[in-house]
Amino acid sequence: MSSITLTGVGKTFDQTVAVVDLDLAVEDRELLVLLGPSGCGKSTVLRMIAGLEQPTAGEIRIGDRVVNDVEPKDRDLAMVFQSYALYPHMTVRANIEFPLRARKVPKEQRVAQVHEAADMLGLTELLDRKPAQLSGGQRQRVALARAVVRRPLAFLMDEPLSNLDAKLRAATRVELVDLQRRLQATVVYVTHDQVEAMTMGHRIAILDRGLLQQVGSPQDVYDRPANLFVARFIGTPPMNTVRGDVERGDGGLGLRVDAVLLPIPAATASAVEASGLTELVVGVRPEHLEVAPDGAGVLPATVELVEHLGHEQHVVCRLPDGQLVTVRQGSHLPAPAARSSVRLVAPTEHLHWFDGATGARVGS
Amino acid sequence: MRAERPAGVAERRRRRLRLAGRYLLMTGLALVVLFPIYITVVNSLLRPDQIAARPPSLFPTDPQWSSYRIAWTDGHMGRYLLNSAIVTTAIMVGQVVLAILAAYAFAFLEFPGRGVLFVVFLATMMVPFEVVFFTNYHTIADLGLLDTYGGLILPFLATGFGAFLLRQAFLTVPRDLRDAAALDGYGHFRFLWHVAVPLARPTVAALGVFAFLSAWGQYLWPLVATNDEHARTVQVGLRQLRDTSLDNINVTFAGVVLASIPLVLLLLVFQRQLVRGLTAGAVKG
Amino acid sequence: MSEHVRAPGRRAKDALLGYALVAPSLVLFGVFVFYPFGKNFWLALHRTPPFPGLPKKYVGLDQVGDVLSSPEFQKSLKVTVLFVLYTVPTGIVLGLLLAVLAHRQLKGMTVYRTIFSSTVATSVAAASVIFFTLLNPQVGLFTYWLGRSGDLGVLEDPTTALIAVSITTIWQTLGLSFILMSAGLQGVPDDLEEAAAVDGASAPRRFWHVTLPMLSPTLFFAAVVGSITAFQAFGQIDLLTEGGPNNETNVLVYSVYKDVFRYGNDGVAAVKAIALFFIVLILTVVQLRFAERRVSYAR
Q1: Are A131 and A92 in contact (CB under 8 A)?
Q2: CA atoms within 13 A on the CB side of A299
Q3: pLDDT digits (tens, 9 = 90+) for B249-263
Q4: How far apart are CA C223 and CA C225, in angstroms?
Q5: Which of the listed ranges A260-269, A296-305, B68-77, B88-97 does the model predict with the highest average pLDDT?
Q6: C235–B235 CB contact, under 8 Å
Q7: Environment class of B248 (CB within 10 Å of its CB; exposed 0-12, middle 13-18, buried 19+)
Q8: Cis peptide before C245 (omega within 30 of 0)
Q9: Angle at Cα A12 formed by Cα C8 and Cα A231, nearest 5°?
Q10: Separation between Cα atoms, residue B10 and residue A319, nearest integer Å
Q11: What is the pLDDT of residue A126?
């Protein structure tokens, strides 16, 4: 297995910019998830690593080798496609064997490796079938087997689970993580699904419009989003964000949201003052926002509706200036009536502060 | 529903009558369509005087197989069939191979001028052979290829239609397959042979059958490009046979039967491909 | 989609391969399609000398005008159009009739289908030789049945020759027409017919108002392609009438053939060939236009 390093990588198609100045290091034996909305450039990054696209700037290294001018077949990477890319006219056996034939692996070794891979993925019974005779999950496993059989330096996976139904996807996620651990494989995994990213990735790299937003462990990315985009992209329901102007109050800086002046903690305040910011966005995850039981909370709001999900409930509230926020609370708590007036409260340490103009995180 | 039962009986009788009428009509039409073929076979087995007899005999009471021997040897039908088989097979194989190569380039490779060149290929479909055959005659004559297989084959080797048809088939091959093969270490020719052609097999087969059928039936070009039995194909051979056996009409009929046998066999084996080929090929006309 | 390729070296190699793959076809097209096509225009502007060996003389559009206004060409054009009109609609209607009859899944239908498509196994030459012999003025069976034994042969009679040639052609192409129409019918969704049946439409009404409109693309296609083929007819003329009697069957291609191989006049032949090209071109453009429209209709 091998590490993969991207330095200053960029890609421009004709007029459109797909990837900008990307620095990213995938460590040996790491499962790194490239996460982002569709069109963010994540697949392009993967295809550049594979050699299917040529970067227009920067350098890509696999291990210590610069591979910019190396043909795909000589990079020794295996790729799993969203469509699985199985050859419909070949049996499962022939599909798995295909990459070995190209490499002129001797017959006996080929047979052994095919069986090993088929065994690992539970395909032994299906070796003589054609892809059309398989279920979606089985096809997906054949695609994996075809990648595994080559014993490549690293695996590239492009939304490999998105053609499966929800139940199968959850099960396959677990299998994939297990497979990665057993093979001690370096994996670059592309997805738009944050649940996949959070549950599978050792680290997550979040991309938006060709720009890398943040790289970090799932917990890190969740707890300390580097900017508003990451904050809103990760987490369901998404983080509540409220915009306001910075004001000087009695005890220091505060954020004016309607009639309320939210105190800004000292550490953040000094950062705000240092950069002279006048507008901030404050964010709080729904599970950190509470409906104050005795009406002692800070933010006045009107309840719009309550969604019951069984294990929890989402209370959607409207602030006086019209912005919507969601409170996520346990189903054991009493649900406030719709249209009723409530007050909301959030612990200061769970507030996230962002630059109102750039969206960048302010303070620690 | 229940109240209509008596009417249902009448309805069923009417339906049965209609069905009988349908069969009667179809049988009549089938006889009309088949008659020329039937009478050809019958006449090939009659003596010339029987054919000329009035009223004519519609059954071979005393089949005379000698007509086939005469057509085969004296009438050179054996030679003509061999010539046709060679020329037709060469044209078919050549068209399929050249079309596959060109279609692959148009579907999978990028090169400056690809669009223009593809239009050039399409443009050749606009020029009927009947518009250019006489200049081609001079060209082939200048090359010294009259009365040779080469002269019969060369003008028909390239096919814009075939390249177009196969390009469309190749374009349906998912891009991921090409990418996967590239990662697996398959170059263009191996991808072409192991993936693209197998996936386009129905189209390749249809093109092959269509090419064979049109090449086999050619008349104008072999007529002008051959002067004797060395290279003359079977269609033009039939004319020769007719003109030389005016007193032995049975031999002419035997020749027609001999000339048709290969096609009948081909069609029995490749019925499905033929229908595909004809419906696709009819685009070209 | 456009960026499919890797390193610059690879890109150049791919491009070279691309040229190499189209080159053989391109060379053949150059020699056997584009060169003779272009030469036609040159020939049209030059008069072919009466004796071979003399230089061809540039005459501008004189020769074009001469040919287009000549009674021989005009008759040839008229005969060709008549031939198209005799063969194409009849062939389509007969093919459609057979296809409709054989469409229902009934007992023995495979046999009927095989018989109806059987003439695809014949060739123009085979069909022409069969009919030529059956129409032989002395011993021909059809001649006898028509009660014309000892009369002027059907193929020698100016009033019947073209009709005989047309019937031969219709018979020979009937199998193809049947196959095309059957394929078209199979494309008509059964549920449409059934819906109309439930609505109480009678069988003829269903055919006329549901099946036929759904079939119109096939019919149009068959009409255009059939016309193009008919405009290029040659073999049946050469084998049945050689353009006679009195040029009554002297279709365009046959007249081009005679100009070159009987009179050695390539200049006149070229003018006629160009005329044929434009006729086919117009038909092709009509067909393409229609095909484009059809795409926008597509379900």
Answers
A1: yes
A2: 30
A3: 889 999 999 999 988
A4: 6
A5: B88-97
A6: yes
A7: buried
A8: yes
A9: 135
A10: 78
A11: 93
Q: Which long-range contacts (CB under 8 A, 24 or more apart) does A116-122 make?
A: A116/A149, A117/A145, A117/A146, A117/A148, A117/A149, A118/A92, A118/A93, A118/A145, A120/A145, A120/A148, A120/A179, A120/A182, A121/A145, A121/A148, A121/A179
| 8-state DSSP, A360 | B
Could you tell me if A200 and A30 are in contact, meaning their C-beta atoms sit under 8 angstroms apart?
no
Chain C residues in contact with A72 by the CB 8 A cut-off are 6
The C-alpha atoms of residue C172 and residue C168 are separated, in whole angstroms, by: 6
Which of B131, B137, B265, B272 to substitute to test the interface with C, most C CBs within 10 Å? B131
Give the burial class of C299: count Cβ atoms within 10 A of its Cβ; 0-12 exposed, 13-18 middle, 19 or more buried: exposed
Do A322 and A338 form a contact (C-beta atoms < 8 A)? Answer: no
SS3 C44: helix
Strand order in the sheet with A260-263: A260-263, A253-257, A240-248, A279-284, A352-355
What single string gives the DSSP state of each residue in C122-148? S-HHHHHHHHHHHT-TTT-HHHHHTT-
Task: State the Cα–Cα distance between residues C156 and C159, nearest whole angstrom.
Answer: 9
Does A125 have pLDDT greater than 80?
Answer: yes
Give how far C125 is from chain B: nearest CA, Å.
Answer: 6
DSSP characters over B25-70: HHHHHHHHHHHHHHHHHHHHTS-HHHHH-SSPP-S-SS--THHHHH
Interface touch A52/B179, C-beta < 8 Å:
yes
Say whether C141 and B39 touch across the interface (CB within 8 A): yes
Phi-psi region of B148 (alpha: psi -120 to 50; beta: other; left: phi over 0): beta
Element (H, E) at B14: helix B5-44
Q: How far is CA A317 from the centre of its chain?
A: 28
Considering only CA atoms, which of B206, B195, B219, B202 is closest in space to residue B275?
A: B206
Smallest CA–CA separation between C187 and chain A, in Å?
25
Cα–Cα nearest to A308, from A337, A284, A331 = A331
Note the pLDDT of residue B7: 62
Residue of B nearest to C237 (CA): B220
Per-residue model confidence (pLDDT) at position C297: 43
Tell me the CA distances in angstroms from B179 to A19, A34, A44, A298, one per residue in order: 20, 20, 13, 57
A43: distance to nearest CA of chain B, Å?
Answer: 13
pLDDT for the residue numbered B169: 92
A330: left (phi over 0), alpha (psi -120 to 50) or beta: beta
A13:C2 CB<8 A: yes
Query: Which of A300, A296, A275, A282 has the alpha carbon at shortest distance from A350?
Result: A282
Supply the pLDDT for residue C3.
Answer: 41
Number of other CB atoms surrounding residue A59 within 10 Å: 13
Q: What is the ipTM of this complex?
A: 0.88
pLDDT tens profile B43-65: 999 888 888 777 878 888 888 88
Question: In which residue are the tokens 């006898």 written?
Answer: C144
Rg (CA), chain A: 25
- B171–chain A nearest CA distance, Å: 15
Cross-strand pairs, A31: A187
Interface probe with A: pick from C4, C5, C6, C10, most Cβ of A within 10 Å: C6
Pair of tokens at residue C253: 């291609």
Residue A294 has pLDDT above 80, yes or no: no
pTM of the full structure = 0.84
Pairing of strands A203-208, A31-35: parallel
Interface test with B, best of C11, C13, C33, C149 (most B CBs within 10 A): C33
